Request: fold
Amino acid sequence: MTESLKLTCATCGQTNRVPADKIAGGPKCGTCGDPLASGKVAELDPPAHDKMVRGDTLPLLVDYWAPWCGPCRMMAPQFAQAAMALKGRARFAKINTEDHPHISQRLGIRGIPLLILYANGREVARLAGARPAAEIEAFVRQKAPAAA
Ligand SMILES: [Zn+2]
Reply:
C-alpha cells in the first residue's frame, strides 16, 4: 500500500493528495497545474503559509527573511541549492517578514534569517542564521522523517 502525502499548492492553495512514490515524478496541482514539488523555492503569502505549515505531511522548510537583511540575501542562493538537492524529500518556501510582520510576531521570531522546519502539521526544528547549502540540507535530513 502506498502512503499518500498531503501537499498544499503554493500557487492556488489547493490541497492535493499525492502517493508518496509519485513525488519524485514531479506531481502537479490538480486545480491550477503548477508543479507541487519542483525543487524551487516558493514565495508564500500568509494564507498559503498557514495552510502549508498546518496541513502538509511532506517536510516543509520555510525561510523567514526580509529584503533589508543582508545575511538573508546572501543565504538565498544557498537555500535554493539545498531545495533542489532535496527535491521530492522536502519542500522549501520563503516568506517576507517585512511585508508580513504578524507572522514573525506569532512565531516569536526575533532575528532573521531563521529557518523553521515543519512536518505533519507541526513545527519540528529551527535553524537560525545564514547557513551554507550543505548545512541546510543536513539539517533537513537529520530532523525530518523521510517520506514513505
Ligand atoms: Zn494549484
About this structure: The two ends are 10 Å apart (CA to CA).
